[in-house]
Amino acid sequence: MFLWRAFTNREPLRIYWKLYIDECLLIGIDSLTIVAITSTFIGAVTAVQTAYNLVSPLIPVYIIGLIVRDMTILELAPTVTAIVFAGKVGSNIAGQLGTMRITEQIDALEVMGINSTSFLVLPKIFAGITMYPLLVILAGFLAILGGYVAGTLGGLITPDEYIYGIRADFIEFNVTFALVKSFVFAFLITSISAFQGYYTQGGALEVGIASTKAVTNSCIALLLADYLLAELLV
Amino acid sequence: MLFDVSAVFKPGITNMIIGGSGTGKSVLLKNIVGLIVPDTGSVLFDGRDFHNGSREEKKALRQEIGMLFQSAALFDSKTVEENVRFPLDMLSTMPMDEKMDRVNFCLKRVGLENANKKMPSELSGGMKKRVGIARAIALQTKYLFCDEPNSGLDPLTSIMIDNLIHEITTEYNITTVIVSHDMNSVMEIGEHIIFMYRGAKLWEGNNETIFHSDVKELNEFIFSNKLMRRFK
């Protein structure tokens, strides 16, 4: 019902453009730092942990690069970044809409005859599904780079072996799979968080509860979606 | 829950809905402006049925409605100027220079001609209410609804807001309905008053007749404080 209201009886499209750009900046650009830090360190840790667990001399060292690449593309970039994204963007969306609800700003929109669901929620959803895949691509690059830096500086693998590893047995569909996941996760996080914020009732305490629920529900939903997508697409 | 509430609000005078907390004043106002859809009954704006109209009819009618909320409900992320311009941006096809003329006119009318670039967080309670009024009249409103416009304001600022609403009402011949439980406002500008009690309309009159009513619940409400009892 909530999404139906958001997608029907919309305002003229010209109204959404500025809102969409603003949301893209808020959702995408403002998330760059946290996504960059998280993904770089995850890649570095994956490389170090893989090297630590490589006890058999029969397994070639380049496998570190291969494992970092596959783990990054399949899970770390789309899924772990989604959890970080839910924490940052999901709580922000729920907090913003919850505050607008309790301070009657949403009622003010409705009195003016503006479809508040569509006006407030649509730009967030579209900005999310535009920016999150880009963040996932960036996270993928940085995680692989993080693995390279940690592996080569720590003396665990040579640069040539790492680059050979990340090129070996590459399955192109994995990238498509990661991007499909990123679209689904972005939609889930933005819509669930918007729902939690939009229907906040009460005061500041309830806005905090809505933000928490937005993050927890988004995380549960995206993990469930991750499993279902793996079953469907792999 | 409201029961059998029937009232006619005339233009050019300040209509007030008064009553204690939880008596249905705000619910009645929300029914009138369309935030709540009544189970039965109708709300007519100059003969136009608001709740049973088509989407286009409702949208057209909403453009004639302005509302001042209890918390002013200014958009936090927008400046004063953007807040007042918002209904014009959304609902009119005016060119930008005309919009700005209208915004400056409305802000001047509420005595805030130099506050265009301020953010809502930089404004006092009274200033927020004045910006709220400016936004409510930006579209050359025919119907103005105010939900407790004096809440959280000191007595002097309250009177200033009351007088501003009254002046705008008479100046532009607007149909104004104010929800309040402030007896100072009632005495100051209450030209047509409805008293609500437990979801029903119990009394109707003006700020002269209100003190001669024999309705027990109304008298209890009016003379609940020492000042009013002394006045009596």
Present the secondary structure layout.
The complex is a heterodimer of chains A (234) and B (232).
Chain A: H1 2-7, H2 13-27, H3 32-53, H4 63-102, H5 105-111, H6 116-153, H7 159-167, H8 173-198, H9 204-233
Helix pairs in contact in A: 2-6, 3-4, 3-6, 4-6, 4-7, 4-8, 4-9, 6-7, 6-8, 8-9
Chain B: E1 14-18, H1 25-33, E2 44-45, E3 48-49, H2 55-62, E4 65-68, H3 80-91, H4 96-109, H5 125-137, E5 143-147, H6 155-172, E6 175-180, H7 183-189, E7 192-197, E8 200-205, H8 216-222, H9 226-231
Parallel strand pairs in B: 1-6, 1-7, 4-5, 5-6
Antiparallel strand pairs in B: 2-3, 7-8
Helix pairs in contact in B: 3-4, 3-5, 4-5, 5-6, 6-7
Structural summary, described in words:
The complex is a heterodimer of chains A (234) and B (232). Chain A is mainly α and 234 residues long. Helices cover 82% and strands 0% of the residues of chain A. Chain A contains 9 helices and no strands. Chain A has helices at residues 2-7, 13-27, 32-53, 63-102, 105-111, 116-153, 159-167, 173-198, 204-233. In chain A, helix 3 packs parallel to helix 6 and helix 6 crosses helix 7. Chain A is elongated and about 70 Å long. Helices cover 41% and strands 16% of the residues of chain B. Chain B has helices at 25-33, 55-62, 80-91, 96-109, 125-137, 155-172, 183-189, 216-222, 226-231; strands spanning 14-18, 44-45, 48-49, 65-68, 143-147, 175-180, 192-197, 200-205. In chain B, strand 7 (192-197) and strand 8 form a beta hairpin. The radius of gyration of chain B is 18 Å and the shape is globular. The mean pLDDT of chain B is 89. The A-B interface holds A 9, 11, 15, 99-100, 103-105, 107-108, 110-114 and B 33-35, 55, 58-59, 61-63, 65, 67, 69-71, 73-76, 86-87, 89-91, 145.
